[in-house]
Amino acid sequence: MIKSIIGNKDFLILIITFFLVLTVSITNSDFEFFPYGEDGKIIEQMRKQNGLVISSLGVQGFKNFNILSYTGRPHYIAGQQLIKINYQEEIFIDVYCNAIFANTYSQKFAKQKECFAQRTPELWKFIGDKLGVNSIIVNKEISTKLPLVSKSRNFKLYNIK
User: Fold this and answer.
1) Where are the domains of the chain?
2) In 10 A of CB 149, how many CB atoms?
3) pTM for this structure?
């Protein structure tokens, strides 16, 4: 029987190809997604907390797309979110520090990075109270003046409250 299998060249080529593809895919994989890869620690920290999460630019994206869905927590995705703080003078806080007139993603990201770094913990607490948010997950390149809860290769998790 083994001679008949070995004698069938098409079947043998198929088996060899299958094992080669399997071997190459396993050796070239850095196991980023098994089950959460290098972001597993930060996901577990987020699962322990309650409340909404704000995410910065650079958290969603093709490689990191599922990070927020893995946490099982409701979240705000980076966008245009204004909080009105003075009803007489029409004063707003732009939660995500979006540069409306910036043409490229890199310009918007740089603006958000600078803005998040300059915000005081008191302002973050105000934003958190208004939106019901208690933590922020940001791209690894963004820092805030908030307490760092956890970090991974791609992200940082900060506590607002």
Assistant:
1) 1-30, 37-159
2) 17
3) 0.69
Q: Tokens representing 144?
A: 């805030």
Q: Is the dihedral of CA 19, 20, 23, 29 positive or negative?
A: negative
Q: How far apart are CA 112 and CA 57, in angstroms?
A: 8
| Burial profile 13-49: b = 16 or more Cβ within 10 angstroms, e = fewer | eeeeeeeeeeeeeeeeeeeeeeebbebeebbebbeee
Q: What is the pLDDT of residues 122-142, one digit of tens each?
A: 999 988 888 888 898 888 899
User: Cβ of 68: how many Cβ atoms within 10 Å?
Assistant: 20
Dist CA 21 CA 42 (whole Å) = 32
Question: How distant, in Å, are the alpha carbons of 23, 62, 149 from that of 26?
Answer: 5, 21, 32
- Please give the structure tokens belonging to residue 40: 């597993």
The whole-angstrom separation of Cα 45 and Cα 94 is: 27
Q: How far apart are CA 117 and CA 100, in angstroms?
A: 19
E strands present in the chain: 52-55, 75-76, 82-86, 91-94, 133-139, 148-151, 155-159
Q: Cα separation of 118 and 113, whole Å?
A: 9
